[in-house]
Description:
With 621 residues, the protein is α+β, with helices and mostly antiparallel strands. Helices cover 23% and strands 18% of the residues. The protein has helices at 32-35, 73-79, 156-160, 278-281, 287-298, 306-324, 329-346, 435-442, 445-466, 479-498, 534-537, 541-555, 601-604, and strands at 42-45, 48-52, 69-70, 83-85, 100-102, 106-108, 114-117, 138-139, 142-145, 151-153, 178-182, 192-196, 204-205, 243-246, 254-261, 360-362, 376-395, 418-433, 506-513, 516-523.
Amino acid sequence: MTPPPARRRRTGANGSVPTHSLPRRGAVRRAQAITTYGIGSLIAVDAESFVVSGLDEADQSWSTDESPRIHERRLARLLGVDYFRLPPASGDSSKDGLRVRRFPLMHSCPECDDLQRHRDFNPPAGRSVCGTCGADLVPSRFVVACEAGHLGEFPYWQWVHRSKDRGASTSGQCGGKLKLRTSGRTSSLRSILVSCTCGKAPEVSMEGSFRRNALKDLGLKCFGPRPWLGTGAPAQECGLPLRTLQRGSSAVWQPVLKSALSIPPWSNGRADPLAEHWDALRVYDSREHVEIYLKGVFKGNCPVPLDEVMDLLDAEREEDSDGQAGPTFDHRYLALRNKEYERLRSGNDEGEDSHEEQFVCETPLGDQSILGPLGVTGPMLVKKLREVRALKAFTRLADPDSTTEAKEMPLSSSPLRWLPAMEVRGEGVFLRLDEDRLDTWERATAVAARVERMRTAHQRVLEQRAGDPSSVVPSPATPRMVLLHTLAHVLINEWSLDAGYPAASLRERLYTADDMAGVLVYTATSDSAGSLGGLVAQGEPERLDQAIRSAVHRASWCSSDPLCVESEASGTSGTNLAACHACVMLPETSCEQNNILLDRALLVGTPEDSRLGFFAGLLDQ
């Protein structure tokens, strides 16, 4: 009997595999494709490990049919793109999804102890098992990375064949096979043993492989591997020291996220059809030239009225004159926050067209004078808001409290006109501190000295991790910043207890500068804990008064006292003072500063000096 012909994988016109024929390996939530499993990150699916592919056009890693465009003009201008895209949808209706590549390639077999590249095991198609013994293969637990963002395989061969003086062997491959086994005596690295069948090198353990200079002592440097871009992407010249990391370590991938609130005049969405034309429109100064351009592009059927286009162009030029076109990225990002602060102060009342409006901010109806004794002013009820969070780049080996923009790895090897992003629609409460009272409090010598300790510690951390002194940004720690930051944390904890919100469903947005002293607490998720009106109700003056008083009284005592309140330094490298997980720390998704630069003593004072506390007077009432 003649055997049936071998089945061939269908390909497209150019020989590429069609998207719908690629095997599925798992699913993640849409938001996780930005915050947790973004471009260049490692993702574990069952017993396998993959790296999320980049955004190069050749990869087609994000299907345009399943990645809807979203627009936020102010943030797009800041990041130098035209628009954003949501991650591909998941579910049975999805034909493509996120593309991934197998990484690390080094695997071990728990039965025969072989340690080699995945393809050398000759696994059956679509499976990750040893072709000899049929056991499930185990991806390498260890990878290497450098501070420039490159990611590579752990050099097992060099680790085994190192000489007695810990230098790497310079000879070629020895012809033997690597083996990996565990002794089972302990759960430490000492029990993970690697050997080679060539017999020229003794069996060695993985102990010491995580030392900062372990690979440098072997004479190994980074050669610039970028596995998320595929084998076609050339390695970059690097030469930086390599660090050994656990495959699941958070240091392997950390996102660089930038966000903005949609505020008028861009928040109604009517200008979205012009997203790719704004840069061209900004060249024209006259109404006539703008009209001619629009007629040429849209064949006389422009979806946006000419008067509205001119108003939007005027708004952009006003932002430019107010500092949007500043000398540095941080300067422009602060200017973006300034505009949000102004709009939150002035409000945007609900009108007839509010069903299209994505930003509705109103003054509460209650008597605001009751907040005067607290030093709080200008509460606003943000009934509708939209936040766009974009994945600008990613870093490796960067600590969470580093705010430098250096050593970011782009999402593609070629320039992009769009970036991955997610949008959050919800509600919030905005409040400000009384400027006169705040100025008086800030000038107190004891307050300035206490914050200076945190600022110095934070600045020292930034300088140590930046490498290049010219790239170090000043620490944002100031008395008003630390005060507002800590106030936001205790309010989120209070509303979590009193209003029934999970703390992780609320998020802070700080507005701190010489001319800003406000904080926005808003819903950070779009699920059942999102926009239900419960948070807006907390902004009414009577309820806000009760919440602040209760939060301050709660912050006056911690179950870790007196150790907490008398602490000389806490947190990462001493960047906190009186702050711990028992009092003011939050889930890190809720905090803009990764739970650093916190001190509840600035709210309530210390046993030795109650005048340190901005709200210390409430404790006597």
